[in-house]
Amino acid sequence: MREFKGRVAVVTGAASGIGLGMARVFARAGMKVAMLDVRREPLEAAVEEVRALQGAAIGLEADVSKAESVEAAAARVEAEFGRIDVACNNAGVLIFEKAVEDISMAEWDWIIGVNLYGVIHGIRSFLPRIRKHGEGGHIVNTASIGGFLITAALRTPAYATTKFAVAALTEGLRNDLVGTNIGVSVLAPAAVDTGIYRSPRHRPDAYGGPESGPDRTPAVIREGAHPDQVGRRVLEAIRNNEFHIFTHIQTRDWLKARHEKIIADYDALEQWEAGEPRPIPRLNM
User: Fold this and answer.
1) Alpha carbons 170 and 138: distance in angstroms, whole number
2) What is the mean pLDDT of each run of 10 residues along the chain (285 residues)?
C-alpha cells in the first residue's frame, strides 16, 4: 500500500500502548480508524483523543479471545466505514516473573486466548473483508522481539511462547498471500513504554481474576520507545511492504547471537553422525 488517505484501519488493543500509537499515526495519515479493546472506559478516552487529531474514529468494545466478538466488531466496522483495508491484530497481555511450572492452566488459557487466538480470530474476520473490495490492503500481527528469542532476565516464557507462535502464523499467512495485493507484516517491538506489565490487573475472573499490588513495570520498559514511534515505523513498513517490522536496532545483535548458538549445535550433530553406522537420510525438499 502506498496511499493511506481515506483508507480504513482496524486496530485491536487500541485503548492504550502500541495500539493507540498506531491509531494516532493512522489518523494523522488521513485514515479512518476502528479501535477495538475489551476495556470500555479507556477505549472511549482513546477514541476521543484520536478524533481530536481530526481523524475519523470509532470505538468498539470487543474481546479478541472470542471469535464471535471479533466477527461482530468486523461487521460493525464494515457497516460504519464500508470496508477494511488495514488490520492490525495487536491486542496482547503478559504473564511475568513466573517459571513455566508455576503458570496455572487458567493463565495459559488467558494468554493464549488473547495473544494467539486474538490474532487468529482477527485474520479470519478481517482478511475476507480486505479481499472483498479487491483493492488490496495489509495485515500487521503484533508479535514481539520475544517472538524471536527468549530474554531470561524478564522471565516471560508464556508470553514468548505465544509470540513465537504469532511469528510463525504470520509467516505462514505471508506464504498464503504471495501473488496477491495484500501485504503481511509481523511487528516485533522491543522495549516500548506501554502498560502491558499492568495487564494482569485486568485479567477476567474466568482466568484467575485480577492481580493487585504495585506497578512492577521494569525501568527498561518505562524508558522505552514512545508508542507513536512504533506507529510511524509500522506505517512506513506497510508503505514499503516489509515483512519483519523491528523497532530497536540493537536487537539485531541479539538475534545474531541466538542463531550462532543454534548453528553451533549442528557441530554436535555432525560429530554424532560421524560415528553413526546408519546416517539419517538427507532431506529432499
Assistant:
1) 12
2) 94 98 98 97 98 95 98 98 98 95 96 98 98 98 97 90 98 98 98 94 91 88 96 98 98 97 95 91 88
Catalytic center residues? 159
- CA 255 to CA 87: how far, in whole Å? 27
C-alpha cell at 145: 522481539
**Residue 179 to residue 202: CA distance in whole angstroms:** 41
Q: DSSP per residue over the chain, as a string? A: ----TT-EEEEESTTSHHHHHHHHHHHHTT-EEEEEES-HHHHHHHHHHHHTTT--EEEEE--TTSHHHHHHHHHHHHHHHS---EEEE-------S--GGG--HHHHHHHHHHHTHHHHHHHHHHHHHHHHH-S-EEEEEE--GGGTS--GGG--HHHHHHHHHHHHHHHHHHHHTTTSSEEEEEEE--SB--SGGGGGGG--GGGT----SS----HHHHTSB-HHHHHHHHHHHHHHT-SEEE--TTHHHHHHHHHHHHHHHHHHHHHHHHT-SSPPPPP--
pLDDT (0 to 100) of residue 249: 97
* CA distance to 35, 118, 141, per residue, from 70 (Å): 12, 8, 15
CATH 3.40.50.720 fits 8-250, yes or no: yes
